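Researcher: Batch entry, complex prediction.
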Amino acid sequence: MTTTTSPSAQLPKDQPRPGRPGGPRGLLAAIGGQNLSLVGALIAVVALFGTLNPNFVSWDNIQVIAEAVTISGLLAVVQTVVIICGGLDISVGSQAGLASVTSAMVFTSTGADPYLGIGAALAIGAAIGLFNGIVIIYGRVNPTIATLAGLAAYKGVAQLVSDGRAQGYVLGDPVFVFLSRGKIAGLPTMVWLLILTAAAVHALLTYTDIGRNIYAIGGNDTAARLAGINLNKYLISAYALSGTVAALAGVLLTARTGSGQPVSGSEGLELQSITAAALGGCVLKGGKGSIGGTLLAVALLGALQNGLTVQGINAFWQNVAQGALLVAAVIIQQRRNRERAVGLPA
Amino acid sequence: MTTTTSPSAQLPKDQPRPGRPGGPRGLLAAIGGQNLSLVGALIAVVALFGTLNPNFVSWDNIQVIAEAVTISGLLAVVQTVVIICGGLDISVGSQAGLASVTSAMVFTSTGADPYLGIGAALAIGAAIGLFNGIVIIYGRVNPTIATLAGLAAYKGVAQLVSDGRAQGYVLGDPVFVFLSRGKIAGLPTMVWLLILTAAAVHALLTYTDIGRNIYAIGGNDTAARLAGINLNKYLISAYALSGTVAALAGVLLTARTGSGQPVSGSEGLELQSITAAALGGCVLKGGKGSIGGTLLAVALLGALQNGLTVQGINAFWQNVAQGALLVAAVIIQQRRNRERAVGLPA
Amino acid sequence: MTAPEPSPAPPPGSSPGLSAEGVSKRFGTVQALKDVTLTFPPGQVTALMGENGAGKSTLLRILTGDHRPTEGRVLLDGQALDLNSPQDARRAGIRIIPQEPEIIPHVSVAENVYTGSLPRTGLRRLDRAELRRRITADLKHLGFDKVLDPDLLGSELTAAQRQLVEILRAMTGQVPPRAIAFDEPTSSLSEHEVEALFALIGRLRAEGIAVIYVSHRMKEIFQLADGIAVLRDGQVAGVVRAAATDESALVRLMVGRDLSSLFVRQQVATDRVVLDVKNLTTDDVSDISLRVNAGEVVALAGLIGAGRSELALALAGDAPIRSGTVELGGKALRLRDPRAAITAGIGLAPEERKAQALFLQRTIRDNTSLVSLGRLRRWRFVSHRQEKALAQEFADRLRVRAPSIEAEVRTLSGGNQQKVVLARWLARKPDLLILDEPTRGVDIGAKAEIYQIIADLAREGTAILVISSELPEVLGLADRIVVMQNGRTTGELTRDQATEEAILALAMADDLATGTTAHAPTGDTR
Amino acid sequence: STGQTSSGADASVAPVSGKISITYLQKQGDQQYFVDEAAEAKAKAAELGADLKVVNLGNDANKTVSEVQSAIAQKSNGLIIVVPDPAVGPQVVQTARDAKAALLTSDDQVCASGPSPAQCAASDLVPRIGFSGQQMGQQVGQRAAEEFKKAGWNPADTRIISGWKQDVTVCGDRVKAAKDAFDQAVPGVQNIDVATDNTPTGAQDKVAATITANPGVKHWVAWGCNDENVQGAVTALQNAGVSPNDIDGVGLGAYLACKDWASGKPSGMKAALFINGKDVGALAVQTMYDKLKNGKDFPKEAFAPTKMVDATTWQSAGVSCS
Ligand SMILES: Nc1ncnc2c1ncn2[C@@H]1O[C@H](COP(=O)(O)OP(=O)(O)OP(=O)(O)O)[C@@H](O)[C@H]1O
Ligand SMILES: Nc1ncnc2c1ncn2[C@@H]1O[C@H](COP(=O)(O)OP(=O)(O)OP(=O)(O)O)[C@@H](O)[C@H]1O
Ligand SMILES: [Mg+2]
Ligand SMILES: [Mg+2]
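Model: Structure tokens for the complex:
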């Protein structure tokens, strides 16, 4: 294996190296060690449920899974960015709910203009994200607390503007119908949105200096500051991005359910997105993580959930199975690292 | 009927300044800067709601508040310990739920023996905590993921053993009635339990070498290891403590509601306890925090919630107000630090 | 905010180079700098000296825009600069190699170096080919291409490599450097890198760059510096020409008194073997045999990456032992973890104080007492009074400069932090004390104190193993010197045999024999 | 301050002379049904000149106890409560009784002497205004059976989807009643329980997976704990290519079903049971007022009207669709 590690850092040795030579090793390196175990877990889950019920691996069901994970997947993608920066956004679910009612209400009150509805939702999302960032940076409020507060406050705002009711009905409009049921090249529109968003964010993180700066900020903010990176700009932008994509998720929520939902369907998304990001290899301290890993985790969790339902396993067993499989996936993945079992794992 | 006060109008405006030299500096130093702002916020909240409705400051209502925060307070106290170690326990709520049904079911099935019921619940709690610790340390699973998995899994187990229903009825038994409605020296039994637990943990953290080691582990685990601290023993113990106290909270849940509740009453406790700990000055990276601060935060959140309800503010505005006040409290507290507004605040 | 016009007395107005004018800085109640006016002329190396906590790093931080002065201003070639951020200073051509390297853990060395100004093509695409070209060229140019693999991740770097990354950062950049400050750059480098660094500094001087050099190593100062500025208690104690002064005069200027002698010469080594290592092999060192007797001071010498720190960690129970035996006081040890080592009577003050030893958010008292709590406690309750007394005693003996022992270690200067690390282990008085670079960043007065304490401990029968990259220290302290290279011992010298040349010859024994370079770049073995 | 409970009805509450203060404690107070209920209760209280405070209990049995105590500390004369879980009932009854406050429940039943209203002596049931979960389920099941027969489907190639959050007791009651009623009318149709989180998207995803597991099915019957479940199920079925003609969805609440109908397109949502929280809220406040002001005894149980509505009748029935 290798020579030594500096005592301060017992790291997993199989970090993907930037700029390593190609070949079959290049592919492996690109997937990365963490992701490799996720791929393994995913294959195991698919094989298991596919054997139990061949329909599980039908193209129809794969689309069902993809559609089911779209909303939480979008949030997981931006959560990944925020976590790499060293932050956390616990308010994504509430933001999605607020965006959902906004889109439906603006749609209804502007005489059924879908673009205005969607635009207003995205604008609100961006504004809230920006506000989160400003509260954190200039109010010096710890990101966890600030977005916890946002979790409550934005949910309250969504409930206030909607009076707690589902708002409007959008599935009379072709744009929303297209979002909800349309397909492009055989794949649901929603899934395309997830793919495009993920690809864009992946490119941003991997191929641009912006992305590299994001890793630098999360890895060591003093170093990043001394290197002249404008931390505040990046961090606020990360939260604004998170708000905007959360709003997109809210719009999809509206399209899927046909009406603006202040709470229903968006509650709990924060935990799901953080779970996916963490399982996908994000370190909550920041500086580490990848969109590929997060998407794999999203797929794994989605396949698991779908498979359990396909097998008709009841809600209680599903909870147990999900918890157990989550832990199992990580343990298996860590076994390969052969890290010394001392202290908290990263 | 509902007074829909704008949240910003209720901000505690008058934060006391930190202790300048002279005067009772010892006391001020003991309370600490962070806590001082919490005390200020608490005074502001009490003064505000007390003026609006004198009943708010009645002894009856104060007891109501104290009783209402007992369960989340207990969890916040242990969450503080876990966070100081550098970990996180997101499964406390599910553990409490499982303990709650365990206590009621064992109570019922052993022919109404309260001690067996309570003992079994505590034993289960300790075992689960231990298991969490072992999964984290020897499975090398990140504490956030491990306890997120526990959140799902233990909830599932609680639902499975109880079939998702409230179990048994314990308020025919004097021990449970004493826990639920009894008083000692004019103060509810439950509140005494919180006080005693908090005092014990505070003493542990502040006056013993065990506490020093806990702070050391969270502050710098490499240094702690090289200083000869058995990290694993401490971390596993912290999770075991967390599980045991969560089980105690579950027993109180049973006593309060009269039956074993698999989910209701324990869902969301993880977020509440983390919020309280973070607001009370715990740094999520570990190494910092105090029971005093956490308790103050628990009291502040409890007073706020009660006050908003007393004022008849509706659920939606309560959400908004809680979020806004949480952020406001931290901003005011940070204003004193005059930290440069660059990068993420600790 | 800048000082009100008209500016105070000596107008460095037109003097070329980098100047501080009437600079003061307060941290809460601590007055770190007071009315400092100094000029660092171009084409000269100006050494900045002073005791730990005198304000050197703070001054450098102000000059490089990382701190705003409470009063005063910074000038470059007579032009007042408005430095709001380190970036402003960078743009003005002012660079610093900070005392504590700041490394980004999960990205490569190359990205670490150019963070903030990564090469890019259209659409902000990162230009990886250019990045590689740059790092290869810069590494070669600075002479570090043998010791630093650009593909290593930040978290995999040794202390020396981290330092090199900081040096690379300062040397590169769009604007050519006009002034460069080195804040104790050699404290984690060994001779080999030091030579490369000195050559580099020589080149900088020749190019007309103003070099500020902070160090506690006298030898280096006289080797390098043209002028010497001394700070004491945050004020300028004097500015002298290097040629016109000597060591004792400097010391007097720094500490305000004479230091009789640095090293305590004594012969107290006994025949009682305390540490007996036989054929010890770990992942990093092989076949090490070593003895340290009671009262004996043994130094481990060697170049960077020789494996001395790894050996120390193995003896302290923190690296798995593959084969071989370790006996302490005649008893075979099973070194499962550091706890076992400490219980057996081994203490290690590790080399990287921030990463491996300190609890920055905790007080000096807390940090000092940590491994002595066992004897300060009763029923597991720590006696606050005894604890305070203990911490105060060592803070005083090591002259830790802080408002009180209740100050958070985070707020201390680098040297004072190092003293706290030493205090922790000196307070415990183990049978075998391993000190890895004990005087890294420590000022000369405190060094003398540390040497005195080492001598005292030796006289009380403690066996002491010192790892040091400072040859004068090795020569001055040790009764016996063991030299290592590539994870093996290559020789042993008694005090009488030891000279710098003899040590270096052993440290490079393999290379001399085979004619290869001193060390292969790390990382490509994996 | 202990003492076992004995009787549900409470005679010890004295009429109030001054201004009457009532606290209305609701589970899931942020859901549309309960929002409506609260709004109407407030309107009624304003009309009667009483002071009304509405408290949201969420799904939290523990918070229920806290809020009851708090209301009593605030000197409320009467409490109207919708409990998140009937098991917490005895504790609530005891607390109210100790404080001599009048207690009325709405929507869900509460037993004074034990956790389960189903096994409660009639005299121990706390007076209640509301709908009967059992009855609601029954109506849903019957209507679904009617639609099934009307469509002339074959039980063998039909499946029933029952969607509900499985740890919510009242949901289980509703669904069970629907199953029983349907089975009585049309025996032999296989039922599939789908564990949802009671949200439309949650239900949609779970039902979509269920469809995967049952590829040969031609016709689907869908019901659930609320409109969200049924709407989610219907959407999933339609997205899977099942024609609205092959779906027999019967909602519960009608607040989401009405949106489908308002769009004018064919929908698998064939009918929905309209339950109007407004009626319950107003009736509960009136009943409490009469008790506190005039000493008029609570009725043991009073039902607000429910009505089965469909695409043609919902508007005339007064379903408001926001
Ligand atoms: N962030 C801070 N907060 C409080 N005090 C500080 C802070 N930074 C520095 N100080 C104090 O300012 C004084 C000067 O520190 P500085 O780091 O400049 O010393 P130095 O001369 O570089 O010492 P060394 O040789 O040990 O590196 C010290 O007393 C130190 O404790
Ligand atoms: N993080 C790391 N990644 C890869 N190799 C490492 C790492 N840290 C140390 N090494 C290697 O381990 C060996 C021993 O290094 P070590 O730091 O112990 O040397 P040392 O003699 O203590 O030198 P120093 O004078 O720098 O303290 C060297 O071959 C070094 O290259
Ligand atoms: Mg310094
Ligand atoms: Mg070393």
